[in-house]
Amino acid sequence: MILYFTGTGNSLAVAQKLASATGDSLMPLAEAAGKDLSDEECIGLVYPCYDFNTPPAVRDLVARLHLNAKAYLFIVVTCGAQTGNSIWSVRQLLRKQGVRVAYCHKIRMPDNCATLFGRNPNDQLWKLEKYAPRLEQIAADIKARRRCHHFGTPGLAGWLTGIPALEHKILGAFKPVVNADLCVGCGLCVKTCPISNITLDDLSHAAIGTACTACLGCLHACPHQAIQVGGKPVPKERQYRHPESINR
User: Fold this and answer.
1) What are phi and psi of 108, to 5 degrees?
2) pLDDT tens-digit profile of 198-218?
3) Share of residues in the chain with pLDDT > 90 (%)
4) Cα(126)–Cα(94) distance, rounded to whole angstroms?
5) In whole angstroms, what is the distance from residue 121 CA to residue 200 CA?
6) Sign of the dihedral through C-alpha 140, 25, 215, 161
């Protein structure tokens, strides 16, 4: 079984391709948390790297998994460039549960955070073709139950951004807010949020809760640019969704 966490579809697309190649089933990580998965002999975790680390929501969900300590467990992280401590931190969490990671790797994807710096994630679609062979190799490694660790060691940048006070500031800086004057209550952001942290209030305006992990899925999904970061709307041409991901 492959468990995934996705904001704009990068990790979902990777999880879907791995599932197709290996014959595994898919489940959102938020749905798997708290369930008894101890009968599963193979577990995959596919999630993104944010700010050189694992998104806080992913760490919280992984800590709630009930897994078979003898299962073959693999991690594939999607990232714009570097993985930082995003693999290492989850390996540490699983080790506390008596679960060892057998295999880990990364796939570079269009960086959905680029839009906040005036760049267009859609200009990075070249990564999909360039890293397709690596994804095929990862699928082959998993099918063969190979044991190998790529990008799984800790680094200084990931350690720094993982300091609670600094991580809190970074999350606050990237947390989306809703412009009520533009919101029409269509609910697309509600469906997009991977942790069900967005609701519609009594005025049918989107309301983002306190558990936001800044995946930016809602910002990229809003057709009216009502969800913003830093008080600035995102132009339609810089909104991004992985072109091959299938909504689940």
Assistant:
1) -75, 140
2) 999 888 899 999 999 999 999
3) 83
4) 34
5) 28
6) negative
pTM of the model: 0.94
Average pLDDT, stretch 131-158?
93
Burial track 7-42 (b if 16+ CB lie within 10 A, e otherwise): bbbbbbbbbbbbbeebebebbbbbebbeeebeebeb
- C-alpha closest to that of 153 among 199, 85, 92, 90: 85
Q: What is the pLDDT of residues 58-79, one digit of tens each?
A: 999 999 999 999 999 999 999 9
| Residue-level pLDDT at 248 | 46
Contact present, 52 and 88 (Cβ < 8 Å): no
Provide, for the chain, the percentages of residues in helix, strand and coil under a 3-state DSSP scheme, each rounded to the nearest 5. 35, 20, 45
CB 117 within 8 A of CB 229: no
175-231: CATH class:
alpha beta
- Enter the tokens of residue 206: 């989107």
Give CA separation, 20 vs 23, 25, 137, 208, 227, in Å. Answer: 5, 8, 14, 34, 34
Q: At what angle do helices 132-143 and 10-22 cross, to 10 degrees?
A: 50
Q: 217: which 2 tokens?
A: 């899925």
Domain limits, the chain: 2-161, 175-231
Is residue 108 within 8 Å of 127, Cβ to Cβ? yes
2-161 maps to CATH 3.40.50.150? no
Angle at 43 between CA 103 and CA 89, to 5 degrees: 55
Q: Return the structure tokens found at 40.
A: 């599963």
